[in-house]
Amino acid sequence: MNKDKQLDQLMSTYKVPLVSTGLADRIILAASHVQQRQSIWSWIGRMFEEFKLPLPGYSFASLLTIGFLVGFLAYDYVDINNIEDVYVASIESIDQFLGEDEIFL
Amino acid sequence: MATELPDDEYLLRQIQEGDSAAFATLVKRHTTKYYNLAFRYMANHESAEDVVQIAFLKLFENPSIWNPKKGVKFTTWFYRIVVNLCLDNKKKYRTVQLPETLEISDGKLNQEEETLAQEAKTLLAFEIASLPDRQKTALILCFYEEMSHKEAAEILAVSIPALQSLLMRAKETLKIKMKEYLRDINE
Question: Which of B53, B54, B64, B76 could make a disulfide contact with A42, Cβ separation 3.0–4.6 Å?
Fold first, then answer.
């Protein structure tokens, strides 16, 4: 028999002593005194575990629609031909503004 | 009708939600397997049990360290945890405990041969525990835990050829250290 087989045979005779019968119970008991740590990320992850985004096409179309809606609602129409709609600064305030800058010069 | 046992991954998800019963099931299912691994690593009964206890408690304390999305089986991942703990605690539990009891003879060997065989086993346990870490891990995982080379390579984070080389070197070392016994026992 060659040395490799002899070694394999010898190695297979190496048996581990039996584990203590109470080891599992000891571990379980010790765990009952341990406070579980929950990372904030895993907690957040679990909160959103069931949340799924719709198909990209639908997401894009929805976003576009919301964008148009928000755009139209926020749009403040100004008719530049109507002088009442346009804010024109008074001559005094323009002079005052320019005058403040000239102090530094 | 036989009820299907929950798999490890399901139990781990339960543990992550604070289910201690799931933890108890997992511990009872795997304690012996990981104890055997730790014993072969450290050749010391108490330290092997300590390592297994520490590993399970670490898992219970912070169950999110196991990430199912990485696609690694729990058993493979936990092998890595136990092996790393064995390495970390090597200095703490330096004593190698040699087998104390002689096995009962099967009547085929005479007293002298039996003593020699026992001596060989004792020395083998010591020599395995004294191998360089990576060689020892490769040998234990492939020979004693009967893992595939792919799985063992994954645990050791090496390529398959590198694992095979580690295995070969471990066996070569053992053959040299055990040469007296290999000749005496079988010739």
Answer: B64
